[in-house]
Write a structure and sequence with these properties.
- The chain has about 375 residues and is an alpha/beta fold.
- The protein has twelve helices and 14 strands.
- The chain has helices at about 10-25, 50-65, 85-100, 110-125, 155-165, 180-195, 215-220, 235-245, 260-270, 290-300, 310-330, 335-340; strands at about 35-40, 75-80, 105, 130, 145, 170-175, 205, 225-230, 250-255, 275-280, 345-350, 355, 370, 380.
- Strand 3 (about 105), helix 4 and strand 4 form a beta-alpha-beta unit.
- The radius of gyration is 20 Å and the shape is globular.
């Protein structure tokens, strides 16, 4: 994302950078008895389930750590602000959180919002941990402050295209959100198809925070596509699936993880049968992995107040990742110390391997496919 030198956003970056140097953001003061994380996410609007569930999973882990005395005697707090999945609101929230001197930014939801926030975090030298997005634009080139838990959209779409083409389904269309998130997913699909000397047979778009899919249905339902890869959020993708089927489309629907799997299943009900979603964290419904058993036990110990789903599982794992980094900072955590500590992590979180390094700020490349069953469940 290129921002002209005369833009207000660029001037804000410069101000924050100057404040960082004057205020010593590079060697941040440690909060004496607690560590405060700042999270700007969608807690209202059409994408609210993504922010709500991720936050719930993270808070579940932090609450249980805090009940045992915290990490190194420090309680962990998440200060949450609602951006409604809109970049301008996210920028304002991020400026406030940085001004309030949060220790790190954590669990931002979405590509357009994270792309707007990361330059602010980098300018102020504030760690930016576990954004809920797989966009390559946040990963390449490596940004020193940014640490990613999940695999990329390139990883997800590569698996989707590989499965489809192995099933001899090579007429693939793309329905995508008309913004940076949609472009990131479209790019992944296009690259995966190009490697097989293929191209999308048709494209259709929807605006962010909208479920107006009529134009996309008109262009894709009669395109001859055997499958449609969807790069959107649950409300728009559910609306598209319903309307495409009404228009006579009989092919398959594939989604990337950011759609919000359980929210999509809830929105579709019986119409969800056979819809495929790629996942970047282990299934919260399959107890084969120790981390899933741990997650479910934590929910039960917390009074079953958190819904076990892929979004809350990702929040829980993101919280584990931060807690591990904080533990490794030693007695007096600083932002610089946290960055160095995160870069030293190479751990198995109960069947989910996470590994960073000075030249690698993406912890995992784990991807698998799941399918909605039509009765509200998700099968992997």
């Amino acid at each position: 994302m290129t921002i002209p030198s005369f833009s207000p956003a660029r001037r804000r970056f410069a101000v924050l950078a100057g404040a960082g140097l004057v205020g010593g953001f590079g060697i941040a003061r440690a909060q004496d008895s607690r560590v405060v994380l700042g999270q700007s996410a969608a807690f209202s609007g059409p994408a609210m389930q993504l922010g709500t569930q991720f936050h719930a999973g993270a808070k579940l882990l932090f609450d249980q750590l805090n009940a045992k005395g915290g990490v190194g005697g420090r309680q962990i707090e998440i200060r949450q602000l609602d951006d409604g999945y809109e970049p301008d609101r996210c920028v304002a929230n991020t400026e406030k959180l940085i001004k309030d001197d949060v220790f790190a930014l954590f669990g931002y939801i979405g590509t357009p919002t994270s792309l707007a926030a990361l330059p602010l975090a980098s300018a102020a030298r504030v760690p930016f941990l576990a954004p809920f997005t797989g966009a390559m634009g946040l990963r390449e080139p490596l940004k020193r402050e940014a640490f990613h838990l999940r695999a990329s959209y390139d990883d997800e779409t590569a698996l989707i295209v590989r499965q489809l083409t192995e099933l001899s389904q090579d007429r693939i269309a793309v329905f995508h959100q008309n913004d940076a998130y949609g472009q990131a997913g479209l790019s992944g699909v296009t690259k995966a198809l190009a490697a097989r000397k293929l191209k999308p047979v048709a494209l259709g778009t929807v605006e962010r925070n909208s479920a107006d899919v009529a134009a996309a249905v008109a262009s894709l339902a009669k395109s001859g596509a055997q499958a449609i890869v969807q790069i959107g959020t649950y409300q728009a993708c559910a609306a598209f699936i319903r309307e495409a089927r009404k228009a006579g489309y009989g092919g398959k629907f594939y989604n990337v993880s950011f759609v919000g799997t359980q929210a999509l299943a809830d929105a579709l009900g019986k119409d969800g049968a056979g819809v495929v979603v790629s996942q970047v964290v282990p299934s919260p419904y399959n107890p084969a992995k120790p981390v899933t058993r741990e997650f479910v036990a934590a929910i039960q110990a917390g009074g079953n107040k958190v819904q076990p789903n892929f979004s809350s599982m990702e929040g829980y794992l993101a919280a584990k990742l931060f807690a591990e980094g904080l533990k490794r900072t030693g007695g007096k955590p600083t932002r610089e110390g946290l960055i160095a500590a995160l870069e030293s992590i190479n751990e198995d979180f109960g069947g989910y391997r996470v590994s960073f390094g000075p030249n690698n700020h993406v912890a995992s490349s784990f991807v698998e496919l799941s399918m909605l069953t039509g009765d509200g469940r998700v099968r992997t």
